């Protein structure tokens, strides 16, 4: 955990607790260590000099989990595959935003997901996963991890607790359940996983198999501003930092934040696999963290106007926008219990794939591209792009329609986006 005794890791002033958006400007960085530069410089170095040979030996002992009495609590700077000043400041701030003990950053969102799952699961164990997931994650769990003896059992993201428990029983019949992996809201259908129910199921599994599975949540769609999975009982929260936290469609990165116990396993495997993030991208993310709250809030306001327009359009079927979920329904109750924002990414249904393609090809303001969470509005047809690798029958079971379109609303004037949709939908 970050050390509160250092002045540049101060979390309160005069008894007042500082908010994350304020801390993103300075937490974890001391200008005195960098010629009084207001912003951290980019440390483009592969390795770091040790003051003494004894220091180098101690740092490596700590990193490899072989610490001896008198060794420092955390390793000093050694080698940029393990740590780097830009990486350390970024990880400090990410952990602060999520209320985590610590964080680790990776070369991509999929690097974060794969390293976390392989660090927390083991051969012979079972991952209990919600579905749908991002297409790359779905393929990783279903097609790749079985090659290493890690099996999976799925449950629909919108499952009731009794359905989740039945899936847990099926998973325990196959082996030790090591991880409960969820993504909520789901990409791209905006289904919601009940995280409180997952915690209760994890406790039931613990009572039956003697060990509680780790709960891992991909929080890319709403977090860290709109949802706090660690406060809801998760052990690790995953981000594709490429999306909202990066926010400018100019970098690729991922992160995992959570308890020290879980992160020791994840960070250790990152060191061996080399899935760490480079210093320059860390520096770019520090820039982005300063504005993530206002960007996500502005995009969410625009998304509501766009969703309301689409809901009333005669050529549009279902609009899968979280803000339309009503209390008293299963999804509405889960949403209001665990989320504080409807976000700005959602899906809507047109008649079929051809109608979707005609509409997409006619757009003039929005960008026809995969990814999400940028300052510009991005729109795509997931069935033929991001989720192409998912079995068509599985996509159908997950609630995909042939005409499903995903939109990630940016920070443009929403009236301009609505005008673009208006003319494009004439072609649908």
Q: Describe it for me?
A:
By secondary structure, the chain is an alpha/beta fold. It has a domain of 135 residues: Aspartate Aminotransferase, domain 1 (Alpha-Beta Complex), CATH 3.90.1150. 38% of the residues lie in helices and 14% in strands. The strands form three sheets. A seven-stranded mixed β-sheet has the order 3-9-8-7-6-4-5, with helices on both faces. Helix 10 packs parallel to helix 14 and helix 12 crosses helix 14. The mean pLDDT is 94.
Mind sketching the topology for me?
Layout: E1 12-13, E2 16-17, H1 20-23, H2 53-63, H3 85-98, E3 102-106, H4 109-120, E4 125-131, H5 135-144, E5 151-156, H6 161-174, E6 176-183, H7 195-209, E7 214-218, E8 236-240, E9 254-258, H8 260-273, H9 279-289, H10 292-311, E10 319-320, H11 330-338, E11 345-349, H12 353-362, E12 367-368, E13 378-380, H13 392-397, E14 404-408, H14 414-425
Parallel strand pairs: 4-5, 4-6, 6-7, 7-8, 12-13
Antiparallel strand pairs: 1-2, 3-9, 8-9, 10-11, 11-14, 13-14
Helix pairs in contact: 3-9, 4-8, 6-7, 10-14, 12-14
């Amino acid at each position: 955990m970050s050390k509160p005794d250092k002045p540049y890791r101060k979390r309160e002033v005069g008894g007042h607790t500082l908010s994350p958006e304020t801390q993103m400007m300075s937490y974890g960085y001391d200008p005195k260590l960098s010629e009084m530069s207001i912003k951290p410089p980019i440390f483009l170095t592969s390795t770091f000099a040790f003051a003494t040979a004894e220091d180098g030996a101690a740092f490596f002992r700590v990193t490899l989990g072989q610490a001896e009495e008198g060794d420092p609590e955390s390793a000093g700077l050694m080698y940029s595959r393990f740590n780097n000043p830009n990486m350390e400041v970024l990880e400090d701030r990410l952990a602060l935003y999520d209320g985590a003990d610590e964080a680790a950053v990776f070369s991509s969102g999929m690097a974060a997901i794969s390293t976390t799952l392989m660090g927390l699961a083991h051969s012979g164990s079972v991952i209990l996963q919600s579905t749908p997931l991002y297409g790359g994650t779905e393929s990783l769990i279903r097609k790749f991890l079985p090659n290493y003896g890690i099996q999976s059992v799925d449950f629909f993201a919108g499952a009731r607790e009794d359905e989740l428990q039945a899936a847990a029983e099926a998973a325990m019949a196959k082996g030790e359940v090591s991880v409960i992996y969820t993504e909520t809201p789901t990409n791209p259908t905006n289904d919601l996983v009940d995280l409180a129910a997952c915690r209760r199921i994890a406790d039931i599994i613990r009572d039956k198999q003697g060990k509680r599975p780790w709960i891992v949540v991909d929080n890319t769609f709403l977090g860290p501003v709109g949802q706090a999975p660690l406060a809801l009982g998760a052990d690790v929260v995953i981000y594709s930092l490429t999306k909202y936290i990066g926010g400018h469609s100019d970098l690729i990165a991922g992160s995992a934040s959570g308890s020290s116990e879980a992160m020791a396993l994840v960070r250790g495997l990152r060191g061996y696999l080399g899935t760490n993030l480079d210093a320059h991208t860390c520096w770019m993310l520090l820039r982005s963290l300063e504005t993530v709250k206002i960007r996500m809030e502005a995009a969410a306001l625009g998304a509501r106007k766009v969703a309301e327009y689409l809901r009333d359009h005669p050529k549009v079927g279902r609009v899968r926008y979280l803000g339309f979920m009503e209390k008293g329904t299963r999804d509405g109750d889960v949403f209001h219990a665990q989320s504080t924002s409807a976000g700005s990414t959602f899906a809507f249904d047109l008649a079929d794939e051809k109608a979707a393609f005609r509409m997409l090809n006619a757009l003039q303001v929005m960008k026809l591209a995969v990814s999400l969470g940028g300052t510009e509005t991005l729109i795509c047809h997931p069935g033929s792009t991001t989720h192409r690798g998912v079995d068509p029958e599985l996509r159908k079971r997950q609630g995909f329609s042939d005409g499903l379109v995903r939109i990630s609303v940016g920070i443009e004037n929403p009236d301009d986006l609505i005008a673009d949709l208006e003319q494009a939908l004439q072609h649908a």
